[in-house]
Amino acid sequence: MLALSRQLCTRIVNAIERDGPLPFDRYMAMALYEPGLGYYVNGLHKFGPAGDFVTAPEQGRIFARTLARQIDDIASALDPDWTLLELGAGSGALAADLLESVERLPERYLILEPSAALREIQAERLDALPDDLRERIEWISQPPSSPFQGVIVANEVMDALPVACFVMTADGPVERCVGVESDRLVWTQAPPSRRLSQGIETLQEVLPEPLQVGYQSEICLDLPGWIGTITDCLSRGVALLIDYGYPRSEYYHRDRSGGTLVCHFRHRAHFDPFVWPGLTDLSAFVDFTAVAEAAARHQLDIGGFTSQAGFLLSLGIQDFLEQADSTREHLRLAGEIKRLVMPAEMGEKFKVMALSRDSNEPLQGFTISEQLGRL
Question: What is the pTM of this model?
């Protein structure tokens, strides 16, 4: 493992020596996706108790079974040969549980997964499904070129999009980059790229107050293009985006002056992105106002926005407690639901946004706690 990280470090250092300090978004892309070495493509185990973090689908089956209720509602208004597209299927847990939980099966279950290593992990997990379900699954490396009616699910995908980092100074914003000092990767600064400068200028125009000197944060400059790329294939239906994040006014609140970049290694969070590149997950919270703006650019409607707790409770997650056939099982399910909906766990940190195209049916998941006004 350490040899792999050293290889990646050498490649990063070579890029810095050749091109100068790396903008952080380029460094993050290498740390996560550099072929054969990056965190998500190097074949090392990432998910569950033996990995670096546990996603909602790996808490148990209740998350997927509850999500399936919303998918069934959407699918009921679509053609019989509708498609379910999952972005970045992780361990394959969500795919397996959704296929066993939805009442109206999709004609195709597409998994957009560019990592060959993760495809192998997912295939091993999904191979245990009955033939009728397994034969619907197809792996793809880019969004379909032909339009389809269906549902797109992206659970904890946007947080792994590379972000550009900046800090405000008395002379204006500067870009936080990655350099080398005494054979170690370190933070350094450079004039912001034109793209980042324009992004910060736009941000300053819409925030209720200017960002103060010393304020540092990040912007996902690729988010608008990514939203278009993953939804252009959707002729009719809904994209359900689930991730940790904030509306813009909360993301860039004056008290959140250190940004949202976070690293995970063996279930421990830390804030040094230069520790063991390729072995450590890097992520940043999602600006959901930016998601909504990108959706509008791509002729998508906002079908709903709420917390994960509001979404799951609206869909009746508590009903699954009634299926417990023993006190022990009841306690296990109650613990699973608690982790998914309690504010101190995943319930408030995670948000759910629905982007719809030619689909105006009300979405049940947003009935209890609609939070569009926060955007």
Answer: 0.95
